[in-house]
Amino acid sequence: MTIMRMVVMGVSGCGKTSVGEEISLTLAVQFVDGDDLHTEANKAKMGAGIPLDDEDRWPWLDKVGQVLASPQGAVVACSALKKVYRDRIRAAAPDVVFVHLTGTRELLWERMSARQNHFMPVSLLDSQLKILEPLQADEKGVTLDISAPVHQLAAQALKFSAKH
Fold it and tell me: How far, in Å, CA of 130 to CA of 47, rounded?
């Protein structure tokens, strides 16, 4: 039996949690929202409209890697915007598969604006888009357009994962 280690990644508002939960239900594997792994200080910083810097992110990325490296595996929703962040995760879980959810700025803005009680303000979307680095050839992963329904995105991610 193959252990599933998957990161559903992308900027805020792309649907990481929804797609990740759907995948984890299909596979009967643990789902962890990466937002829950942030320190309260990180959440407060983002809530104040201040982007995190790399020093803020390293401990968080280490926690993501630890969750993925568990013997049972996991599906984690995690922005993982830069390749160096994904490399940090891969150091702990080398067999991780990345599912990069991408969409237009307008659609992302619309989704973020509709959310209630989320610590991540819409004002940080542009800073996330600015640092986002697409998946590279040495990263096992697939890029999916968020205009598709959640169940279709989950199915596409699982199909890719089964082949790789």
Answer: 19
Tokens of 153: 């995105």
DSSP per position, 137-157? TTS-EEEEETTS-HHHHHHHH
Which residues, including other chains, have CB under 8 Å from residue 77's CB and lie 6 or more apart? 7, 8, 9, 16, 17, 19, 20, 31, 32, 33, 34, 35
Confidence of residue 17 (pLDDT cuts 50, 70, 90): very high
pLDDT score, position 149: 96
Upper half-sphere CA count for residue 90 (Cβ side, 13 Å): 16
Q: Which amino acid appears at position 104 of this protein?
A: T
Q: Residue 62 is encoded by which pair of tokens?
A: 């280490």
Task: Give the predicted TM-score (pTM) of the model.
Answer: 0.89
Structure tokens at 129: 């888009």
Return the structure tokens found at 130.
């600015």
Q: How far is the CA of 40 from the CAs of 37, 43, 94, 112, in angstroms?
A: 9, 5, 28, 21
Helix, strand or coil for residue 74?
Answer: strand
The torsion region of residue 13 among left (phi > 0), alpha (psi -120 to 50) and beta comes to: left
Higher pLDDT, 45 or 20: 20
